[in-house]
């Protein structure tokens, strides 16, 4: 079991603490929170060991789980890496691109592994269909949430849209060619609604919409590619895969056949894979333990987290 410590005991930090405490791959040593009142309260309520000194906690573990506000990600990660500790760091990886790139260099220098908490990569709906997504040429995503003051310290792009940016970058094997975007601040000091159009060098186009002042929640992505349409509902954990193949010479009575203007006939059929239930946060934490123990590449590397941040910041700059 890997000895792990958590930095940050807010809403998400408490979830990480609970899951790490339950995990058979980690030994939870304790946690640090700069708010001593909150730290002692969480310790008293759940029984986790509270460390009043961040360095003492880092020195006591092999893995540091960083679940602090984004503005402090870099300093926390830097402290841990320079002490030779592996880091799991929540998304977005850092506040600036320069900070993220420096963490990559530091991790290489000190020979430690890092993983970024892009949890939607572990969403069972996405993992169920990811292998079906082959060379998509048009992608449309909608990520809508009801207003919650938590997270409004950053633009909606870094709060919500970055999930979809990372997922898209993981399935489109091409460089970003251009980005156009618009954002509107409604209740926060930073944009609450954003729309972005990402064009890739291979011709793929992704249209992303994110809002944190919606009346209802929605987390859907649709992938269009040759002879297939794939829909992923990250919220409901449902998938829909619609494919086409050459129509048989003698279609059955219930076969769905389409014919284009050139007379080519295609048969539509459904191929919906089973979606297994899981705890995505636990999965991402435990696959990081596997990467450390097996000396393998983490599922979401620091480099991938940096690429998602780079695109997110380009979107913000396009407003």
TrEMBL record:
A Pfam family: GFO_IDH_MocA_C3
Any one Gene Ontology molecular-function term assigned to this protein's record: nucleotide binding
Domain Gfo/Idh/MocA-like oxidoreductase N-terminal: 2-118
SUPFAM superfamilies: Glyceraldehyde-3-phosphate dehydrogenase-like, C-terminal domain, NAD(P)-binding Rossmann-fold domains
Domain GFO/IDH/MocA-like oxidoreductase: 156-214
The protein, known as: Gfo/Idh/MocA family oxidoreductase
Species of provenance: Pelagihabitans pacificus
